[in-house]
Amino acid sequence: MHRGTDPCRAEDGSRGLPSLVETIERSLSKADGKRLRNQPELVMHSQPLRNAHLRRMVTAACVLPILGGSVLVAVGIFRHSTAASGDLGGIWLIAAGAAGVFFGLVVDMLMLLVVKIESNTQRQHNELLDIYERLNRWDKTLDSIAESVGLSDASKSITHREQELAALRGAIRSDIRVHNWDMAAYLVGEMESRFGCEDEASRLRQELDEERASVFRRRLAQAIVRIEELFKAHDWVLAQQEIARLSHVLPDEPRVVGLKEALHRRREEHKQKLLEDWAESLRRDDIDGGIEVLKELDQYLTREESASIESSARDVFKRKLLQLRFRFQYAVTEGRWSDALEVGAQIMSEYPNARMAAEIEESLPALRQRAGLPVEDVIGPSKSAVSQ
C-alpha cells in the first residue's frame, strides 16, 4: 500500500507535527506583537481635578459632621430605649446628631454650588482669554489693512491711473451731454493738471467749445423765431423783454444786436402803416374803421404826433356821436325801444361827458318802461367806461 494513501500513517503524523493553521496563527501573532512593540506607547493623561486638595478638605469637613451626627443618633436611640422614663438625654443626643447630619448636608450642598460657580467663572475666564488672543491676531490684521489704506493719494493715483482716467473721460462726456459746461471745463482742467494729458485735454476742450457753440446757436435760432412771431403779433413789449434776456446772455452776439435794431425798425414800420390806414379811413370817410385804427395807433404816437392829428380825431369822434344820436332818435321814432336802449347805453359808455349822454340817462326809466323791462335793469356797459 502507498504511504501517501495510508490513512493510519496520516493520522499518526498529524499528532507529531504542527498543523498549517497553527503555524500561520503563530506567525501572525509574532508579527502583531513586533508591530505593537515598535509603536510608541500611548499614555492617557487624565486632566487633574482643579482645587483637588481644597475639595478633599471640604469633603472631609462635610463627612465628619455626618458621621458624628449618625453616631450620636444611634447612641441617642440606644440610650432612649434603655433609659428610665423621664430621662431626656437620649432625645438630646438624637437631636444633636440630626443637627450634625443636617449641617454636613448643607455644607456639602453649598460646596457643590461654590464649585459650580467657580467652574463657570473659570470657563468664562478661558473664553475671555481666547477672545483676547483672537483680538490680538485681528489687531495685526487691522494694522496691515491700515497700512494699505494709509497709502498716499499719489500712490493710489499711480496704481489706478487708467481707471481714474477712464472714469474722468466718462464724467466729462456726460457733463457735455447734459450741457453742464462749467463742470466739464473743470474736469478737463483736472485731467490736464493731475495726469498731464495735455493733448487729450486740448481735444476735449475743443469738443466742449464746439458743442457749447452748437447748443447756443440752436437756442438762439429758436429765440429769434419766437421774437419774429412777436413782431408779427405786434407785441413789442414782450419782444423787447426777450431781446433783453438774450442781450444779457450774449451781449456781443451780432444777431442779438440786430434784433434790437429790428425791433425799432419794425415798430416804426407798423406805426407808419397805421398812420397810412388812418389817412385812408379819413379819405374814405370810414368812421368806424378810423376809430379802430386810432385806438391802436394811440400807443405809438408821441406828444407832437398826437397834437398833429388831434383835430381830425375830434372830428371823427364827433361824427361817430352824430351817427349814434341819429340811430337812437330813429329807433325811438319807430318804437324800437330795445334798440334805443342799446344805442343809448353805447353813447353813455363811449361819450360819458357828452350832453346827449346825460339826456339819455334821464330818459332811461321811460325807455325801460316802454320796452317792458324793470326799471332796475341795466343794459349795455357801465357809465364809467372809456371817455371821449
Could you explain the architecture of this structure?
The protein has 15 helices and no strands. It has 388 residues and is mostly helical. Among the domains are: 52-129; 165-233; 320-388. Helix 9 (236-249) runs antiparallel to helix 10. The longest helix has 61 residues, at 89-149. The N and C termini lie far apart (175 Å). The model is unreliable at 1-21, 39-47 and 378-388 (pLDDT under 50).
Low-pLDDT runs of 5+ residues are: 1-21, 39-47, 378-388
| Principal-axes shape call | elongated
**Helix/strand order, N-terminal first:** HHHHHHHHHHHHHHH
Instruction: Please report the number of helical segments.
Output: 15
Gyration radius, rounded: 64 Å
| Main pleated sheet | none
Oligomer: single chain
Q: Roughly how much helix do the residues carry, as a percent range?
A: over 70%
Structure described in brief:
The protein is 80% helix and 0% strand.
Give the tags:
single chain, 388 residues, mainly alpha, elongated, disordered N terminus, disordered C terminus
